[in-house]
């Protein structure tokens, strides 16, 4: 190994603890900023809980659509998937676009903070808020709406890797999408329609098999459809797999599509996000 390579490697190893400490500190700052913004909390953190409550109450008179499966139970997996979309894509895309437009990234570029620390803060905030939202959503479904949650350990293991893969994918796509809005004022107008449209065509609000075939084919290109399908495999009985287009949960295809979008989001983020250093 050359001296220059050893120097660079040693410099990185020496700087890594400082980068990590700064990233952990950034998580705390990001969380405080997140929960001090009422519209962000409402439209990303509480929105899935409110929608599930509305659907659960509105369709309560219809009774069970299958033994042990109420309408609230049927909508729960879609709301879990939508929560990851809202927290990872909508919140992050709007937040980074605002910071870029208002000059925060340029100011940060004039400080010693590393881009790695910046993204550790963002990713940590997304993970923490997603876990808190998930806990609130599941508690609300079980306690208030009487939804029976899975009891098999293997289903919770499946849920864990779906959650981690899903939130990683949505985080990368949120960073990539933040490059689209031209200003902080247009960020919500650009991101919100995309997020809403994906929810309507991906089996979150409407039963996926009810959609025309051409719309199902369009939805199958995007990750939310597959994340919602994977979540249904956790929270709904195995008999509901026959309602999927292929008649099965297709978990291998779920993993593949989410992984493809994760890589695509990472590549797009590397090409579109610019850390502007001030001289």
From TrEMBL:
InterPro entries according to UniProt: ABC-2_transporter, ABC2_TM, ABC2_TM_bact-type, ABC_2_transport
Transmembrane segments: 41-59, 71-94, 115-147, 159-180, 187-208, 251-273
Predominant location category: membrane
Tagged with keyword Membrane: yes
Membrane topology recorded in Swiss-Prot or TrEMBL: Multi-pass membrane protein
Location in or out of the cell: Membrane
Keyword set, alphabetical order: Antibiotic resistance, Membrane, Transmembrane, Transmembrane helix
ABC transmembrane type-2 domain location: 39-276
Source taxon at top rank: Bacteria
UniProt protein name: ABC transporter permease
């Amino acid at each position: 190994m050359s001296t220059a390579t050893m120097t660079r490697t040693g410099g990185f190893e020496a700087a890594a603890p400082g980068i990590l400490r700064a990233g952990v500190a950034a998580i705390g700052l990001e969380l405080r900023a997140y929960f001090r913004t009422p519209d962000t909390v409402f439209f990303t953190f509480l929105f899935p809980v409110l929608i599930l409550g509305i659907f659960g109450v509105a369709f309560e008179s219809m009774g069970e659509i299958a033994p042990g499966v109420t309408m609230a139970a049927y909508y729960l997996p879609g709301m879990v998937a939508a929560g990851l979309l809202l927290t990872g894509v909508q919140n992050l895309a709007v937040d980074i676009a605002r910071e870029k437009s208002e000059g925060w990234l340029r100011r940060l570029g004039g400080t010693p903070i590393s881009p790695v620390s910046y993204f550790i803060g963002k990713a940590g905030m997304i993970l923490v808020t997603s876990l808190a939202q998930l806990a609130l959503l599941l508690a609300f479904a079980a306690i208030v709406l009487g939804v029976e949650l899975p009891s098999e350990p293997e289903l919770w293991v499946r849920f864990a890797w779906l959650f981690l893969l899903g939130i990683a994918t949505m985080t990368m796509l949120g960073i990539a999408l933040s490059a689209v809005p031209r200003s902080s004022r247009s960020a919500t107008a650009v991101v919100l329609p995309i997020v809403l449209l994906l929810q309507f065509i991906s089996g979150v609000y409407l039963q996926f098999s009810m959609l025309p075939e051409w719309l199902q084919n369009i939805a199958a290109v995007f990750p939310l459809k597959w994340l919602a399908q994977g979540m249904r495999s956790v929270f709904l009985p195995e008999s509901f797999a026959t309602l999927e287009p292929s008649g099965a949960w297709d978990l291998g295809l779920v993993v593949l599509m989410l992984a493809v979008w994760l890589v695509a989001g990472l590549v797009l983020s590397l090409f579109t996000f610019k850390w502007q250093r001030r001289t």
